[in-house]
Amino acid sequence: MRGGGPLGPAGLALLPLALPLMAAAAWASARPWPAAPRGQPRPSVVLVACDSLDGRLTFYPGNQTVDLPFVNFMKRYGTVFLNAYTNSPICCPSRAAMWSGLFTHLTESWNNFKGLDPDYVTWMDLMEKHGYHTRKYGKVDYTSGHHSVSNRVEAWTRDVDFLLRQEGRPMVNLTGDRKHVRVMEADWQNTDKAVNWIKEEAINLAQPFVLYLGLNLPHPYPSPYAGENFGSSTFLTSPYWLEKVTYEAIKIPKWSSLSEMHPVDYYSSYTKNCTGEFTKEDVRNIRAFYYAMCAETDAMLGEIISALRDTGLLKKTIVIFTADHGELAMEHRQFYKMSMYEGSSHVPLLVMGPGVKEQQQVPNVVSLVDIYPTMLDIARIPIPQNLSGYSLIPLLRGKAENEVSSKGPRPSWVLSEFHGCNVNSSTYMLRTGKWKYITYSDGRSVLPQLFDLSDDPDELTNVAVKFPVIVHSLDKILRSIVNYPKVSSSVQRYNKEQFMSWKQSLGQNYSDVIANLRWHQDWLKEPKKYENAIEKWLGKTK
Ligand SMILES: *[C@@H]1O[C@H](CO)[C@@H](O)[C@H](O)[C@H]1NC(C)=O
Ligand SMILES: *[C@@H]1O[C@H](CO)[C@@H](O)[C@H](O)[C@H]1NC(C)=O
Ligand SMILES: *[C@@H]1O[C@H](CO)[C@@H](O)[C@H](O)[C@H]1NC(C)=O
Ligand SMILES: *[C@@H]1O[C@H](CO)[C@@H](O)[C@H](O)[C@H]1NC(C)=O
Ligand SMILES: *[C@@H]1O[C@H](CO)[C@@H](O)[C@H](O)[C@H]1NC(C)=O
Ligand SMILES: *[C@@H]1O[C@H](CO)[C@@H](O)[C@H](O)[C@H]1NC(C)=O
């Protein structure tokens, strides 16, 4: 039974032997940095980054819906972050932040087409330079040029005054039987490669290593029924994984009526083809299939943990599990991410290994830019002052209260931004304490949102008007981090420039090519009207 649960109850019982009590004694007394006492070998690191896993599934009550045994294993022997966020809820910009340690307005990775400069020195480059053996498998996706033409044109034209459905309607597809474990073949192949590398190469290394495994799951699958230019709106799994889902625990999200939606949310829902009718059963199924896909992801993480345990490397290795962003799975009448709502922006972050406190739940807000300084801290490499994030090591040791990094104290907020497709305005989110503040564009032309997550975890009541003083103070903090009106207008300029040069490159084929992108069903009904809307947008000076 591959992927089914090699660390079953027997494995769990064995683990305390594999991870002796070194943690408590040796590590707690080490002051200040580095992460490990000098003289002791630096730990190896394994980072498993999946795609689209809603972080709330890794702790109560979200974890009631699906059995994730290896996430639970990491919680038992390590630390789970209860408030970890992506810095930009879409693949390439999020990964650019994770690999660069910089906020999105600094990497200028505005969409899935525009990523990080390939020459940028990542934490992995630095670790290699400082004696680590490095290895990557699977999806990396932080440099430029990937993803479909549709995807980038949708991002560039988001300011155009038109509304087109760009995606297949979200749907489910059950494949195979109760024995069908390997549904996402490509991910399993990459997992196998990483496992083999651990068993055959890592085990013989004299130096510490850093291994990265990037998984596509639980990202939804392409919907080929929608034609040549299709999106990925199919939630695909097998009965084997569906059995791990507790249907009774699945919450059916409340939706605002279409007319009451925030205008930007309406644009998202419409372009994602979610404004049609959905029954409760449709929604429950999409969510169940999504959770089943998360269970399959967890099993891949399990293969890596098992390989580390079987080779005896687990006790010398820090394991990190995270995702680039979440998945709304029909919350707020949307699937995919691109949104600042919890389902989309909240990511899983679990860490276990030498020096990491066991059974710890960390409430502090953290974000993916923290990975870069954390990696350097683990490898005892000096941390540059100009990174956007902070090392997680003090929190991981359970010493948050009295430790301060060389850069000063960790701030009490995190920042996320979005500048890509399916959202017709640059979006900025500041999360601090119980508040989530979301503002758009120039800060004036679009209604901001404020949610009290302690009172309204489903983010259904925008209290921005009710608490103007809070909005004012959060906006002030935000502006001290980023001059967001300026960033928004530079993205608008970039979008137009990119679109114009793409249009020019197509010559006389332009009308034909643009009509047949992912939005072709709608476009072809009134091609002239949509072309005119584009001309009007291009003609505007700003
Ligand atoms: C859910 O998470 C809580 C808190 O971390 C834990 O106590 C509980 O055992 C978990 N439940 C499941 C079903 O995984
Ligand atoms: C949108 O969903 C409808 C069904 O609700 C489907 O017929 C149509 O093909 C979808 N549009 C696109 C662009 O995929
Ligand atoms: C369902 O998934 C199977 C296996 O990937 C595929 O062959 C089939 O075409 C899919 N069906 C639909 C309707 O997408
Ligand atoms: C975004 O799209 C919605 C729906 O078409 C529209 O009401 C809103 O004005 C647009 N917002 C911006 C900033 O263009
Ligand atoms: C950050 O500082 C390092 C030197 O510590 C420098 O090499 C790098 O270019 C700087 N990066 C940015 C984005 O300013
Ligand atoms: C337009 O399309 C034709 C046929 O596909 C192709 O041969 C030609 O190179 C294209 N022209 C441009 C400017 O891309």
TrEMBL record:
Keywords recorded for this protein, A-Z: Calcium, Glycoprotein, Hydrolase, Lysosome, Metal-binding, Secreted, Signal
Family: Belongs to the sulfatase family.
MF-aspect GO terms: arylsulfatase activity; glucuronate-2-sulfatase activity; metal ion binding
Sequence ranges assigned to domain Sulfatase N-terminal in this UniProt record: 43-379
Subcellular location: Lysosome; Secreted
Essential cofactor(s): Ca(2+)
PANTHER family for the chain: ARYLSULFATASE K
Protein's recorded name: Arylsulfatase K
EC number: 3.1.6.1, 3.1.6.18
Signal peptide: 1-30
Reactions accelerated catalytically: an aryl sulfate + H2O = a phenol + sulfate + H(+); Hydrolysis of the 2-sulfate groups of the 2-O-sulfo-D-glucuronate residues of chondroitin sulfate, heparin and heparitin sulfate
Organism: Grus japonensis
Keyword Glycoprotein assigned: yes
Highest taxon in the source lineage: Eukaryota
Record-linked Gene3D superfamilies: Alkaline Phosphatase, subunit A (3.40.720.10)
Function recorded in the entry: Catalyzes the hydrolysis of pseudosubstrates such as p-nitrocatechol sulfate and p-nitrophenyl sulfate. Catalyzes the hydrolysis of the 2-sulfate groups of the 2-O-sulfo-D-glucuronate residues of chondroitin sulfate, heparin and heparitin sulfate. Acts selectively on 2-sulfoglucuronate and lacks activity against 2-sulfoiduronate.
